[in-house]
Amino acid sequence: MTQVTSRSVEQHRQAIEALLAPLATSRVRESLAVSASRIAANPDSYRGRTLAGDIISPTDLPPFDNSQMDGYAVRAADLANATPDAPARLAVDDQINAGDTAAALSAGRAAPIMTGAALPGGADAVVPIERALPNAFFSTPLPGTDNPEMAAPIVSFTAGPAPEEFVRRRGSDVQSGDTLLIAGTLLGPAQLGVIAGTGVTSIDVLRRLRVLLISTGHEIRESGTPLAPGQIYDSNSVVLSQALIDAGCTVIAWPCRSDDAAELLHIIEKAAPTADLVITVGGVSAGAREVVRDALGPLGVHFVSVAMQPGGPQGYGRIEVPRGGVDLPVVTFPGNPVSALVSFEMFVRPVLRRLAGLARPDRQTLRLPLAEAVDSPVAKHQVRRGTVDSDGRVRLVGGSSSHLLHSYAASSVLVHLPAGVDHLDAADSVDVWRIDD
């Protein structure tokens, strides 16, 4: 086991990036069926997925010429000479609703048409209902007269439309054979919508990275169970599971509720065949019973002291799982919940989000003034929690201790006090990461 006494935040960040980089080339494809019913039934299976290959459109979109407005389908030439003093008067055909099949439109006639309805043959423009006289659709035919030409309702127009006005032509958005989306595209609502709209029924996406998350400690128990003296509820499994899901991963959470190295190795052996990465929480400090160090140190995981507060004790490496024949990267965090979550934010979250193809892998960084003075250990990069007040100043929430999870939950920014800084006054500027987006 290699022991490094101390390293900087940047050195450890680079080490974790190098450790996880091979995951980019080991990603495999999986196919997802695409339909409205499947997506509605299981939206999480589709949210934030990354395309593994280009998608070629099998159809035109729109698939037919259709109306952009509620109005009248017309031949623009019939209205070319219309003026307020000499309106063009056209006989009204049957109404065309979305989903209807329309007969061709003859010269001198207008067809009431609804938005999205198929444009009748011969029509080359749509006049919105607001520009027609009357400016409402006929509910019943006009009474018949002795003049056969007046047996149908008449609609008048005081100005002509431009050809193609308010017409959506077939293929004006996408044409059959076009590249609809390219490999690497992150799927959001619009992307899934255009896939479904062109009739694609199956897509290849990158399988989400599968993370085996092991919260460790003889003292941790499941929420809802009675606690004996010295026991605590397991918040780390919840905290890191949600953080990993937000980073585009699938999580296998399997707590190790003992300080027995053999039990931790048993969990890894059982879950390793379905995991791409192992993250452990706890058991990495210099105590007498540090289960993660005891179990994984002999397998090649390096344990280091990072010049950061909270989150100094860290570990990383690749292990060949005993009796499993699986080679996996391992990242280990300290056990206090704030230390674990800060460690995830600093070293792992941006890497995983980049691997998943997610937008904004890095937290938004702002340079803002402090609302109050603050002290920091000069040799360490301290990460405090805070909020931004209405004047744009950073107010610290809670202290620097690594157990203050409630203060973290009440915060909207992480406040960075870099190594080399021991004191800052009110109004001094600091870098903050937004964690409320």
For this entry, give a set of tags.
437 residues, alpha/beta, Molybdenum Cofactor Biosythetic Enzyme, Chain A, Molybdopterin biosynthesis moea protein, domain 2, Molybdopterin biosynthesis moeA protein, domain 3, seven-stranded mixed beta sheet, 29 strands, 18% helix, elongated
Summarize this entry quickly.
With 437 residues, this protein is an alpha/beta fold.
Give a topology summary.
Layout (H helix, E strand, L loop, with lengths): L2 E5 L1 H12 L8 E5 L2 H6 L13 E2 L9 E2 L3 E4 L13 E5 L16 E5 L11 E4 L3 E2 L20 E4 L9 E2 L10 E3 L7 H9 L4 E5 L3 E6 L4 E2 L10 E2 L2 H11 L3 E4 L7 H11 L5 E5 L9 H6 L5 E5 L1 E2 L3 E8 L6 E7 L3 H20 L8 E5 L4 E2 L5 E8 L5 E3 L8 H5 L3 E5 L5 E2 L4 E6 L3
Parallel strand pairs: 1-19, 6-7, 14-17, 14-18, 15-16, 18-22, 20-25
Antiparallel strand pairs: 2-13, 3-12, 4-11, 5-7, 5-8, 6-10, 9-10, 19-21, 21-22, 23-29, 24-28, 25-26, 25-27, 27-29
Helix pairs in contact: 1-7, 4-7
Describe the structure.
With 437 residues, this protein is α/β, with parallel strands linked by helices. The chain folds into 4 domains: 3-24 and 208-356, Molybdenum Cofactor Biosythetic Enzyme, Chain A (3-Layer(aba) Sandwich), CATH 3.40.980.10; 29-56 and 173-206, Molybdopterin biosynthesis moea protein, domain 2, CATH 3.90.105.10; 66-168, Molybdopterin biosynthesis moeA protein, domain 3, CATH 2.170.190.11; 365-434, MoeA, C-terminal, domain IV (Beta-clip, Beta Barrel), CATH 2.40.340. It is built from 8 helices and 29 strands. Strand 25 and strand 26 form a beta hairpin. The chain is elongated, with a radius of gyration of 32 Å.
